[in-house]
Amino acid sequence: MYILSCKDVYKMESDAQNNYNISETILMENAGSALFHFIKNTADKNSKIIILAGPGNNGGDGFVLMRHLITNGYNADLYYPVQNNKYGKAAELNLNILNNLNIHIYDLSTLNNLDKYDIIIDALFGIGLTRNISGIYKDIIEKANNTNALKIAVDIASGLISDSSEVPECVFKADYTITFSTLKYCHTLYPAKTYSGKVIAANITIPDNIISQYKHNIFIDEYNKPILKNRPQDSHKGTYGKVAVIGGSIEMAGAVKIAAASALHSGCGLITLCHPNTLDRNFISDIPEIMTKSFDYNEPALICDYINNSATVYTIGNGMGRQENVKDFILYILQNTLKPVIIDADAINALSLNDLNNIQSDVIMTPHLAEFARLLNKDINEIKKDKVSLAKNFADNYSIHLILKSAETIIAVPNDKVYILNTGNTALSKGGSGDALCGLTASLLAQGYSLKDTCILAAYILGKSAEKAVEKNNPACLSITQIINYYNEVFNEF
């Protein structure tokens, strides 16, 4: 599903009108009709509905919706700013139609009781808003948020900034958002996404081949995710790749073990866990399918030889620690191996931006926001405000596939697009989830998926596994190793 900036949405709609004669009136009619059909399929016809119509085209969508509701026998009121509006021709036309049909509508300044309504439609402000909401609009939104009504936002929840993940002081808290043609960034990025509720993109007759001409990124869901490969009957363990997982320490042996277990349960053929010789290999003895190889931090060349000659893909960083000899070991491995690598955790913390130029192999990097901020030498709040652009620039500048982990997952592909996923839940908000993602990513890459598809599939499968797990368990009580056991259910749904 396409994600467009506010500027490009306006340009797309303008071009649709000028080049294809899809007028603003048609677009507004289709938007209002889409809203009506959602309410028709969702709400009881006896529900008491209020439409809060704003001073611009978002209010015009509300006028169209009001006409459809009243002419179909629904119990609806509409309030709009009688004296303070800036309606264009299409919105003015639809306002006049309501008046010509003698449909009674009210001045927003007279609204004093929202508690009597079952459904509140927010058609106050759309994607053009760039300021904080104040005055009467702020008062109404705050009152609406405090009701028990079902809350539906038109295009975006009033108060959100279309291209931003941030949440201003006053925002309508929607249960559903019915958006038009494409998603907007505030629908996919936290914390703004929290105020959008469930987002449904409605087709208002701008064809995909027109939308795709504009600069866009992609939202991944079950409908456009990559497909899993078939496993041929005459395959063998070598068919599905050999993963070397490098990591571990006495203090954090579990991290690399989780990564190896995640790789084991996602389809690769052979896994070797490479651990420091200070760790007894018996720490992995409960998973007999995983082989082990110990190393000395003073002899990194031996591990390089092993990777270059015996591995399809390797991972590095899980649970290694941040001692100077560990950092030197990591840098030597990354600079002297040719096989694709997933760089995670302590390996990310060992690197500077200059070090990235010395890596010869294909790289997938999986930082969380704090690790990414340290790598870019930025404050984490800078990262949060501009996650998509910073991820894209990093991927392009260093030719690295980036999986940026947060409440959403942002995947930046070099010289391509950004892919955003909202799969997952708070069951992943604990130690070990990044290790599981690392092992899962390595397993898929070893099986022959492209770098891009590997990143998307790994993030999707882990997130969906967490969703499966909470169907039967409280998210607070789940461990990451329990979530790994749900990979099977997700794989079976492809």
Protein architecture, described:
The protein has 494 residues and is an alpha/beta fold. It has 2 domains: 2-215, 3-Layer(aba) Sandwich (Rossmann fold); 237-492, Ribokinase (UDP-N-acetylmuramoyl-L-alanine:D-glutamate ligase, 3-Layer(aba) Sandwich), CATH 3.40.1190. The chain is built from 18 helices and 18 strands. Helix 2 packs across helix 3 (57-71) and helix 3 (57-71) packs parallel to helix 4. It is elongated. The chain starts with a strand and ends with a helix.
CATH topology name of the largest domain, in short, is: UDP-N-acetylmuramoyl-L-alanine:D-glutamate ligase
Indicate the proportion of strand residues.
15-25%
Radius of gyration: 26 Å
Low-confidence stretches: none
Helix content: 25-40%
Q: Count the helices. How many?
A: 18
Q: Give the CATH level 1 class of the largest domain.
A: Alpha Beta
Strand line-up in the sheet with most strands: 1-9-18-17-16-15-14-13-10-11-12
Query: Would you tell me the overall average pLDDT?
Result: 96
Main sheet properties: 11 strands, mixed
Q: Give the termini distance in whole angstroms.
A: 18 Å
Q: Which class of secondary structure composition applies to the elements?
A: alpha/beta
Which CATH architecture of the largest domain would you pick? 3-Layer(aba) Sandwich
**What's the CATH H-level superfamily name of the largest domain?**
Ribokinase
Number of DSSP-assigned strands:
18
**Domains, number:** 2
